[in-house]
Amino acid sequence: MTDKLTALLSRWTMLVPALAFLLLAVVWGRSLDAVAAAVAGLALVGAVLAAVHHAEVVAHRVGEPLGSLVLAVAVTVIEVALIVTLMADNGAKNATLARDTVFAAVMITCNGIVGLCLLVGALRSRVAVFNPEGTGAALATVATLATLSLVLPTFTTSTPGPRFSTTQLTFASLAAVVLYGLFVTTQTVRHRDYFLPPDLGGGPMESEPAEAPGDDGQHAERPSARAAVASLGLLLLALVAVVGLAKTVSPNIESALTSAGLPASVMGVVIALLVLLPETIAAVRAAKRDQVQIGLNLALGSAMASIGMTIPAVALASIWLSGPLVLGLDATHLVLLALTVAVGTLTVIPGRATPLQGGVHLSVLAGYVILAVSP
C-alpha cells in the first residue's frame, strides 16, 4: 500500500506542474470569471504543493541541515515572486504588500509552525527536546532581521511615513543578506551539529544526519542524482506556473476581499498562508517522528529566508516599480512582534518544551489573525 501511495504521489506531483503551466498559457492576459478563477486557484495551490514536494526531494538528496535550507529558500522564492509580481501591477495600491506578507510569514512561522511542532512533539513524548544553541541562534537572527527591516522604518525621520530613505533601505538590504549568509554558513558548515536533532542525552547528534523533511520516518532511500535533477526541473516549471497564475487570479482575490469588507493587508496573510502551508505540513510530519529540531529548523529558517530574501529583492525591484515601499509596522504589530520574540526566547532557553509552550505560541498567532481580519 505504501509503495502504491508513493507511486501515485510521484505521478501527481509530476503532472500538476505541467497542467498548471498549460492552464497558465490558456488564461494568461484574460479576465477570469468566478468559475475560471476558482479553477486557476486550485491549480495554483496544486502547483505550490508540487513545488514544495520537489524541493523536498532535492532536500532529501543533499541531506540535513542543508535540506531544510533548500526547502525554506524554495518557499521564499515563491513568496518573493508573488510579491514583486503583484506590486508591479499596482505599486501604489500594494505599497504595504511586502511588509504585510513578510510580517505574516514571521508570525505564522515563529508562532504557528513552532507552536504546532512543540505541541505535537510534546504530546507524543511528553516533552519536546531540541538544541537551544542552534534554535536560539536562529531566533536571534530572525529578531534582528525583523527589527532592522520592519521596526526601524516606523521610527526613522528622513522620509515621511513608515518608510526608509534610499540609504537606509540599502543598509537594511545589505544587513539582511549578510546576516542570512552568516547564518547559512553557521548552519551548514561551522556548527552543523547545533541544528541536528539531539540524542536522548540532550547533546548534538553527530553519528547520523537527520532525515530530510520529506522522509516518512523509515529511513527512506536517498533519491538518485537523476531523480533530484528531474525534481529540480519540475520545481522550476511549478514556480513559473505559480507566479503566472497568482498574477492572473490576484484581481479576483482582491475583489473578493473588498466585497467581504476585509482590510487590504489580508492579501499578505493569504500569500503567506499559501506558500507556507506545505512547509507547515513538512514540519509537523517531522515533529511526529520525534524530530522537533527539524521542524524548528524549517520554521525559523523560513522566517529568516522570508526577510533575508524578500526585503533585498523588493528593495532592488523598487528601482523600477511605481509607488512607494512601506515597510514600517504599526503599533499593534510592533506589540505582537515583541511578544513573539519574548515568548520565543523563553521557549528556546531550556531546550525542552511542554504542550503549554506550544499552546502559548498558537494563541499569539490566533491573536494576530483576529487583529488582521478585524484591526
From TrEMBL:
UniProt keywords, alphabetically: Membrane, Transmembrane, Transmembrane helix
Molecular function as annotated in GO: potassium:proton antiporter activity; sodium:proton antiporter activity
Transmembrane stretches, start-end: 12-29, 35-54, 66-87, 102-123, 135-155, 167-185, 227-246, 266-284, 296-319, 331-349
Signal peptide residue numbers: none
Residue intervals of the Sodium/calcium exchanger membrane region domain: 35-188, 231-372
Top-level taxon in the UniProt lineage: Bacteria
Location within or outside the cell: Membrane
Segments for region (Disordered): 200-222
Principal location: membrane
GO cellular component, one term: plasma membrane
UniProt membrane topology term: Multi-pass membrane protein
Keyword Transmembrane: yes
Keyword Membrane: yes
Record InterPro entries: Alkaline_pH_Ca-Antiporter, NaCa_Exmemb
Name this protein carries in UniProt: Ca2+:H+ antiporter
Organism for this UniProt entry: Kitasatospora viridis
